[in-house]
Design brief:
heteropentamer, A alpha/beta, B alpha/beta, C mainly alpha, A: alpha/beta, 5-stranded mixed β-sheet, B: 2 domains, 6-stranded mixed β-sheet, disordered C terminus, binds adenosine-5'-triphosphate, binds magnesium ion
Chain lengths: 300, 257, 252, 252, 257
């Protein structure tokens, strides 16, 4: 549409969690006025543990939202017209961790260890690891958030996000050993910017401007995170500046992939979706294959 | 007894209770409009049940209780226990029937005050029921039944919690009101003397199942001045009633034991 | 007389509600990703009937045990509080604390103390359901007719006698009301407990939710509610058996 | 006479509990990552006093509105149910459904219908707290002395008159008991609602929990409980004002 | 009146109620152990309050009520209203005092049956209170007070809900039990005739605040056979008592109005 750029368009972006480096680029675009420069007035809405972002996007209460690849495909199968536009991570920062003092050196060893493994609901890799290792004495238990499980029980492994929970544990005097789950051959797509198909079809221009602002925002954030971190620390008092810096430092390779520059930033490619769908079909999260091409738009 | 259009009629009435069995068996009774009837009978004979049948609070198991519409429209009932609403003041308790009838405020105030004065509780209007003595509660209950100037007044031992002086005074008042207003009064009492003094007709019941032992007219005139209680006519009639009750009630006294 | 009404009235309403939901869903007014059509929920339920039934049995057992705990502890506390004003004044705010603390916030504590699995879930059901028992029983104990209290004082009844022969029998109807509320809460407590400790219908809901399998979520929710209705029904039944006798004077 | 007891007894117990927790924590028996020492919670609370107060105000408002809704809708339903046996039989199972459905399971529906923020949270508080109101008020309405019912029948009182002049006044003590329970539940409902829709103490707890800031979690939980105690206290106060007059015959 | 070791003594007793003010003002009264005293007075004068003071259910605002230990140990009290426990059967209601005293089962059964037979309710043991008539409830309450063979028996208008025959019979029974057991009986009644027939002493009270108007010995002997009621001695005494009450009570009758 040809509306004049000085009239900013109101847009609502719903996160699926509180402000964190995971969403750094989205905030950076705001801090640096990039949305405004693209004629957008973006309201970023922090999420909660149980915020139903996808239904909100599908129903039009949000214009953009953050979700995982698994959620996107599951939602599409249920008839929700959700399209992924931008991926924060090129490799999932999902990990399992044990105490550093533990003798466990790999996920393969963990699967034979007799440990409790605390994992939140709906993690794709649980089924994958089950099939790969056929663990007999490992108990999958619910993940309760934080690292209290690990602190209280030396024979517990738990899910974590690179740079986040391991740092929490270290700050409590318990160093950890971290195993990246993606290295086992299973990879969810951890943080996707999504919108609904209708918006994409009817307002291409808006989506284009949004993506442009976001692309710049992320570059800017990764180059100079300090101003954005100041904002995040204010929004999410559970975070300190130093934790934010550490988290970003650890997650940066997962965001940028193996590349040295920004060439892989935000990239969405058929291969990652086909792999994900393959896993989901294997593990019963999807009943039948779906039309993958309408589930995402390639980026860049 | 010849049938009367505006009479309360019991026609072969029987009443059974699930747990306790037959209380009333084949009762025929007719109470004419405007009559002042006293009902007497031993404890547990079914007097309260009979009043409840008249009021429509209980349905007969067999037979029929006919109550003329005129009497049905505006009734007063003094239960055997006071049954006041604990959250309402004495005044508000007495006001209840008028509130239900939707009378204007001013009228309610006037009527309630008159009614309370009648039972000697003009200064107790603001109290809550739990601060009343037993006899005071019953008097409030009487005031409540009178306040709406009912055309049918059912009283279940209204004065038994009262001292003799108060009792006598209230009976006299009741008779005066009845004379003035001409409503039908059915009055359960345990006192033969009271029955003879206040009523025009006394019906004496047997022990359960309730039957009529005696049905006596009391021809002492419409006006019953205080001095009637010390008159020979009254003493004579009372003595005769006592006799009749003693004779017919022989069986019942044995029962009651 | 009551039985057929009790049964048919809700069934008729049920039929109405189901038909309405189905129509909403099939016509596309309520999208499937928000509200799965009842037919789909039913198909899911039938497809995995055994799994759902097993899960429901577990949850029901846990909720039942939690309710039992609430019954014992809640009534015990209420009795203590009815006997001593000090205790009552001191404990009441803590009972409220118990009521308002979000289970999720103390989940790690629960798991550390009671482990993963059934005990934690039972404790969760207990925590959520104990407050109504306390409050209702206490209200019942306090509402005893003063004249009857006088009677017991007169005969020099001990505290224990007054309790067992007067206060408790008098409080039974209130106790039943409290249990009726607690039964539903125990069910919800058990499900939230299963979010924490795993297993049962809560586990199913938790897993299905992230996969957007609302049909599964609603199948489990439906079973949970049925289990809740069953528990409340059991409470009502016991009420009828133990209380109905003298609290329904209008029946004769 | 009651006032100082009401105040001091819980405070004394509070001092005991705090001292105990502090000792447990400082001595290392209860690890800090599970149970932060009260001193730390207090320091956190003081440090961010304004933020906590703002959050508590929001949550309290939401819970209060939810409770108000429960009061209106719950009593309304209870009254309808007390008047009609059909309605009562038909609605009761659905009331239980309402009680047992986990908020988390219907979170998408709530947020879609009521949006992010306060309305959703208010509805959550309402859903969680309405059942006790229904059950208690209904019990109160049904327990009216038959003789008083007779009295109203006798004077040909309309249903509405019987309701306003007899049933409701009689049910007030039960209503208060129901509200007392509902007040605590509304608080927990608001917090769980905030887990879904964000904001308030629930939002604080949610964020702090995953960051292992248990001091913050407990600071928020403490405030939530205080708010709950406050709400229950308000209910008690209204009870004293409106009901105490005739339901405490032992005072004279 | 000379003080007596085993007497119930009111020593300058005053009783104020918060809402209704002074009920008893400077009362001196002594009831000897083993005495059978009837208390009379208008409705709302404070008779119930006085009984409650004796029972220790109420504390005097000023002054002292002394009750000897012997009398304190085993008391029976018939409240003005029946106050039965609605969830207990008639039998279980009567059994309550014995249960509290921890008597063995067999003894309880026997005593309760005796007590129920005394009030003519031997066949009503299994009923729940709501299936009883008003008079039956009061009789259960009397049975409950008698069942523990109390050494102090306080009765608050126990027979006022009963018909005259039953009332007379129960009064006779009460006197017989008293003669055999020798307990102290304090008996509130509104019937002068009943008071004179059954008691050894009648105390007549004024309207509020309660004062003693008359304190009359009733020298009709220990045994009171039925025919006493038709004897000239009884009639004469009753007439005299009426006279005294009428004289002294002049003020009170005016008050009561
Ligand atoms: N609701 C009831 N259920 C079962 N039996 C009842 C019920 N009400 C009364 N009865 C029985 O019916 C009989 C008559 O009771 P009713 O109250 O009519 O007696 P009454 O003549 O009024 O006695 P009283 O003079 O003692 O008041 C009694 O034997 C009583 O047990
Ligand atoms: N709990 C109370 N609170 C306030 N006032 C009370 C209370 N109990 C009794 N009274 C008042 O004390 C006075 C005497 O009451 P009491 O019950 O002793 O009278 P009574 O002589 O037994 O009368 P009745 O013959 O009517 O039973 C009454 O005026 C009553 O209002
Ligand atoms: Mg009767
Ligand atoms: Mg009295």
């Amino acid at each position: 549409h040809g509306c004049a750029p000085q009239q900013s368009e109101r847009v609502r972006l719903g996160l699926n969690w509180k402000a964190e480096p995971e969403f750094g680029g989205f905030y950076a675009a705001q801090v640096k006025g990039l949305y405004q420069a693209h004629g957008l007035d973006v309201q970023i809405i922090e999420g909660a543990a149980n915020a139903p972002v996808l239904p909100m996007v599908a129903a039009g209460q949000l214009d953009f939202g953050i979700a995982t690849g698994l959620e996107v495909l599951a939602a599409r199968q249920r008839g929700a017209d959700i399209v992924a536009l931008f991926s924060v991570y090129q490799k999932s920062p999902n990990c399992l961790m044990v105490r550093a003092s533990s003798s466990i050196r790999s996920i393969a060893e963990l699967m034979r260890s007799g440990y409790d493994v605390a994992v939140g609901p709906g993690q794709l890799y649980v089924e994958y690891l089950q099939r790969k290792y056929h663990p007999v004495n490992v108990r999958w238990v619910p993940y309760l958030g934080g690292v209290s499980g690990l602190l209280g029980n030396p024979r517990l492994a738990q899910q974590c996000f690179v740079g986040s929970e391991p740092e929490l544990a270290r700050a409590r005097g318990v160093p950890t050993r971290v195993f990246v789950v993606a290295d086992e051959g299973v990879d969810n797509i951890s943080a996707l910017l999504v919108t609904r198909g209708q918006l994409l079809r009817e307002n291409q221009e808006l989506v284009r401007r949004m993506l442009a602002a976001i692309g710049l925002g992320w570059r800017d954030y990764l180059a100079d995170p300090a101003p954005t971190h100041a904002l995040i620390a204010r929004l999410n008092p559970a975070m300190s500046l130093s934790i934010l810096d550490t988290m970003l430092r650890e997650q940066r390779p997962f965001m940028l992939g193996d590349a040295t520059g920004f060439e892989r930033l935000g990239r969405l490619e058929p291969a990652m979706w086909e792999r994900l769908q393959g896993h989901m079909l294997d593990f019963g999260s999807l009943d039948k294959p779906i039309d993958l091409r309408s589930a995402y738009r390639e980026y860049p | 007894m010849n049938s009367h259009a505006a009479a309360i009629v019991f026609d072969q009435v029987e009443k059974d209770f699930r747990r306790t069995g037959k209380v009333i068996a084949g009762l025929d009774l007719e109470i004419h409009a405007g009559q002042f009837v006293a009902l007497l009978g031993p404890s547990g004979s079914g007097k309260t049940t009979l009043l409840r049948l008249v009021a429509g609070l209980e349905q007969p198991t067999r037979g029929e209780v006919r109550v003329p519409d005129a009497a049905r429209r505006n009734r007063g009932y003094v239960f055997q226990e006071a049954h006041l609403m604990p959250w309402r003041s004495v005044f508000a308790n007495v006001a209840l029937p008028l509130e239900i009838l939707g009378r204007p405020r001013e009228e309610i105030r006037a009527q309630v005050e008159t009614s309370l004065a009648l039972v000697g509780l003009e200064s107790a209007g603001a109290l809550l029921p739990h601060a009343l003595s037993g006899g005071m509660k019953m008097r409030v209950s009487v005031a409540r039944a009178l306040v709406s100037k009912p055309s049918l007044l059912l009283l279940d031992e209204p004065f038994s919690a009262l001292d003799e002086a108060t009792r006598f005074r209230l009976a006299t008042e009741l008779r005066r009101i009845w004379l003035a207003a001409g409503m039908t009064v059915v009055f359960v009492t345990h006192s033969l003397a009271e029955a003879v003094f206040v009523a025009d007709r006394a019906v004496v019941f047997s022990q359960r199942p309730l039957r009529i032992l005696a049905d006596l007219p009391i021809p002492l005139g419409a006006e019953r001045p205080d001095r009637l209680r010390v008159s020979p006519a009254y003493a004579e009639l009372l003595a005769r009633v006592y006799e009749i009750v003693a004779e017919t009630g022989d069986a019942h006294t044995r029962h009651a034991t | 007389m009551i039985s057929p009404l009790r049964l048919f009235a809700p069934l008729i309403l049920f039929a109405v509600v189901v038909t309405l939901l189905e129509a909403l869903s099939q016509s596309g007014i309520a999208p499937r990703y928000l509200l799965p059509p009842p037919s789909e929920v039913w198909a899911t339920l039938r497809g995995d009937a055994r799994e759902y039934l097993r899960a429901a049995t577990i949850t029901l057992t846990e909720a039942g045990l939690g309710l039992l705990l609430s019954f014992l502890v809640g009534n015990g506390l209420a009795i203590l509080m009815s006997v001593s004003r000090w205790l009552s004044a001191a404990l009441q705010p803590y009972a409220v604390f118990f009521q308002t603390v979000p289970l999720i916030a103390i989940a790690p504590l629960l798991v550390i103390w009671f482990g993963y699995g059934i005990p934690t879930v039972v404790v969760a059901a207990f925590i959520v359901s104990v407050f109504p028992v306390i409050v209702n029983t206490l209200a019942g104990c306090r509402a005893v007719e003063p004249a009857l209290r006088d009677l017991f004082r007169l005969y020099g009844a001990s505290r224990f006698q007054t309790l067992t022969k007067l206060t408790l029998p008098h409080a039974i109807p209130n106790m039943v009301t409290g249990l009726r509320i607690a039964a539903g809460l125990a069910m919800i407590g058990a499900i939230v407990g299963e979010f924490i400790a795993g297993g049962g219908l809560g586990g199913l809901i938790d897993a299905a939710r992230t996969q957007q399998r609302l049909d599964k979520v609603f199948a489990a929710v439906l079973l949970a509610s049925l289990a809740g209705v069953l528990m409340v029904g059991l409470v009502n039944l016991s009420a009828r058996v133990f209380v109905g006798r003298w609290r329904e004077p209008g029946t004769d």
